[in-house]
Amino acid sequence: MITVENLTKTFPGSTGQVRALDGVNLDVAAGTVLGVVGPSGSGKSTLARCVGLLERPDSGSIRVDGTDLVSLDGIALRAARRQIGVVPQGDSLLRQRTAAGNVALPLEAAGVAGPQRRNRVAELLDLVGLTDKAGSYPDQLSGGQRQRIAVARALAASPSVLLADEPTSALDPDTTGSVLAVLDRARAELGVTVLVVTHDMGVVRRICDDAAVLENGRVVEHGKVLDLVSDAASRTAASLLPAVDQNPAAEGSFDRVADVVLIGFAAVGALLPEATSRFGVDLNLLGGGLTRLGETPVARFRVGLKGERADSALEWISEAGGSVRRTLSGPQGVAA
Amino acid sequence: MRSATPWSEVFDQLLLATGETLYMVVVSTVIAVLLGTPVGIWLQLTAPGGLRPRPVLHKVLGFVVDLGRSMPFLVLLVVLTSLTRLLLSSTIGPTAAIVPLSVGAIPFVGRLVQNVLAEVHVSVVEAAVTTGSSTLRIVRSVLLRESAPALVNAVGVTAIALLGYSAMAGVVGGGGLGDLAVRMGYQRFNDRYLWSTVVVLAVIATAIQLVTNRVARGVDRRRTTSV
After folding, report:
1. A173: exposed, middle or buried (C-beta count within 10 Å: 0-12, 13-18, 19+)?
2. In this structure, are residues A228 and A221 in contact, taking their beta carbons and an 8 Å threshold?
């Protein structure tokens, strides 16, 4: 749906040119949610501004449905902007307009008038669950409500892509949930493709199908969230999965120690007990825990095994769909 | 021993001068706002980070505006007599004074409007840009509408400044309250004229402030209380 190819952007800085984007490639399939994450200074904001057509990249392309939007100007650029709904960073509502008036803004620009406009505004207020706030002014709304109105406004002109730039950065955890729910609903009910730029891994955990990790203007990881976390060494896994504390003393008494990532109800519930009974090994959980990515339960455990068939048990877990990584600590290095 | 001018005579003169002053202030405020607002919009659009950044044009325009503002009004009054003659084929009277008053206030209004528009937060403007709105629409529906209360206040500030400037209109036979105070009050040592004009000027300035405050509140849709 939206493809970003080889995007570069350089800014003049105090110590020479600063390369904010250095050949960024992204691909978001129709109807999916991509989370672009990265530390501050990684180029997230620049990427969001480029994709939102507020900043022109030095080179590269941004294609929506195959059409490159980067080189457009004038009326063609304005028309292209309607294909990408933007929830800008920070407070962006017109304070002199009601919630409904704010949602109507893109429709006015698109020349939609009269009952058609009113109906569309009502639909969107319903989508974000703020029908009763139609006549309220932004100053009368909470931060989360304002952000949901901003999402409704971004969706008003029926864009095929929704871009949200740090949509939850100014919100407390409770309101964050309501804003993310609205983004998820936009994808589910309108089939819109969503690109969320955020520093908050919680956003990825809750609504993203795909994730891209940006570092120093480059994409260092890009793929389905569940694929990325199954590689315990990935940055996505490191920040999304439960942490495992190092505890060499406890690990020393086992024949084998390994980190196991389990994805999905079946794997999380049954894999470890079954391995125990099947191979007659003694299996202990040394650390880690359980979390949820979207609707999918995901676990990462550090397990210690005792028994002659410990290796076979680990192999079997790996074949049954768990992701197993043996740690270097423990006596298995000697035994093997 | 000269007897004081009877109050009835002072009152007649005062009424006439008040009419002249209001005429000059109202008409020149309207003209200055109509011509100065586009200057302010232009300044803001061409500013760095504006919707149509044109740094060189912005600097030139800013320089011209500041030049206009630095010109003492008394000098402008005299310098512009040929323009006044061209426009009105007369250089004396209240109507003739309106030309330099308006011209002098245009750069003033331009800067005021620019400052007011610059207060509209950049994320609000960019949000409108991303909706595919034209620059004209953004100026109208976002910049001007969002800053409407402050713009109304700017009109009030302009009107009160012009009330002050209009006192010098006597130089070109414009009449008005300032002229009355100087000619009849100061030069002829007539305290009744001097102090009554001061009172009337103060009343007019206060009235302008009150009215613009009220209108500004009226156009401000922001409400901090919950519905």
Report:
1. exposed
2. yes
Q: What range defines the domain where residue B41 resides?
A: 7-218
Q: Counting one residue from A and one from B, how many pairs have CB atoms under 8 Å apart?
A: 94
B57-109 residue pLDDT tens: 999 999 999 999 998 888 888 888 888 888 888 878 888 899 999 999 999 99
Output the CA angle A52-A240-A275, nearest 5 degrees: 140
B226 found inside a domain? no
Give per-residue pLDDT as tens, A323-334. 888 875 445 444
CA distance A138 to chain B (A): 8
pTM of the model: 0.87
Per-residue pLDDT tens over the stretch A272-288: 888 888 898 888 888 88
**Bridge-partner residues for A299, per DSSP?**
A262, A290
Structural domains in chain A?
Answer: 2-237 (3.40.50.300), 242-335 (3.30.70.260)
Q: Do A139 and B127 count as a contact with CB atoms less than 8 A apart?
A: no
Q: Is residue B180 part of a domain?
A: yes
- Chain B contact present for A140, CB below 8 A: yes
- The CATH number that applies at residue B145 is 1.10.3720.10
Residue A188 CB-half CA count within 13 A: 10
Using alpha carbons only, how large is chain B's radius of gyration in Å?
A: 21
Tell whether B171 is covered by a domain.
yes
